[in-house]
Design brief:
- The protein is built from 6 helices and 15 strands.
- By secondary structure, it is of the alpha/beta class.
Length: 240
């Protein structure tokens, strides 16, 4: 886990469909070692209270809350955290996540939702992403960042807030594929601005793209996205 510290990882979400691949003991070991290396986590825990709890950062006077949740399995196998048992924060029924966002928003300046969702290996969005994402923003989420699809999906704005539907695989096995970095900046007035930095994973290494590669991925993101304008430098914003 020391490599996470070297990379500058400040927080992780353990809300995903592989968190229990090696059973309860291995899952609890994951929590143990994350704590040992002082890496905050959201989206799972030894019980429901821990799994649904946010993690807060105070940055330049802003209180920023992170929440993690998952709804990524066709056949639901990963255990859901309960009052007395470990597991992940499930969101197949969005009601608990909506309730949690509303509660967290009351004492936060910004709420960021990290959600595991979407169809694997598809740039197309599922209906549930288009519907529940908006519900989460209505509940108080200021930014939604998705994972699970293994490929890039589009950006969408709703009520002025960004839903980054899927960021693809930044570092993942031997596959060669496009990926990227989402850069979100909050200014002194509390306004968010966004930039997408195209990257390529190849031969177990991820590098920033330039030239034709950069332009190709930016053009793809234009095709994947909804109501979003991309500038050549990767900056993007809501279509007026």
């Amino acid at each position: 886990l020391s490599i996470y510290d070297e990379m500058g990882v400040d927080i992780v979400s353990i809300a995903n469909n592989h968190a229990y691949d090696y059973g309860k003991d291995a899952f609890l070991d994951t929590l143990k070692y994350l704590k040992e290396y002082d890496i905050p986590y959201v989206g799972g825990g030894k019980n429901r209270k821990e799994a649904t709890s946010p993690y807060y950062f105070i940055v330049n006077g802003y209180k920023i809350a992170f929440i993690g949740a998952t709804r990524a399995e066709k056949y639901i196998l990963t255990p859901e955290a309960t009052k007395n048992s470990s597991g992940v924060f499930r969101a197949y029924d969005p009601s608990l996540l909506i309730k949690t966002i509303k509660k967290v928003k009351k004492n936060s300046d910004f709420v960021i939702l990290l959600i595991h969702w979407g169809r694997e290996d598809s740039h197309m969005l599922e209906d549930v992403q288009l519907t529940t994402g908006k519900k989460y923003i209505d509940a108080g989420a200021d930014l939604i960042v998705g994972s699970h699809a293994h490929v890039l999906q589009g950006m969408e704005f709703y009520d002025g807030k960004l839903i980054a539907h899927n960021m693809g695989d930044f570092i993942f096995n031997r596959e060669n594929k496009d990926t990227g970095i989402l850069n979100v900046t909050i200014d002194n007035n509390g306004n968010m601005s966004y930039k997408f930095i195209p990257c390529r994973q190849k031969n177990f290494k991820t590098t920033k793209l330039t030239g034709k590669g950069w332009n190709r991925v930016i053009n793809n993101m234009r095709d994947y996205s909804i109501n979003t304008i991309f500038d050549e430098d990767g900056s993007f914003y809501m279509e007026k």
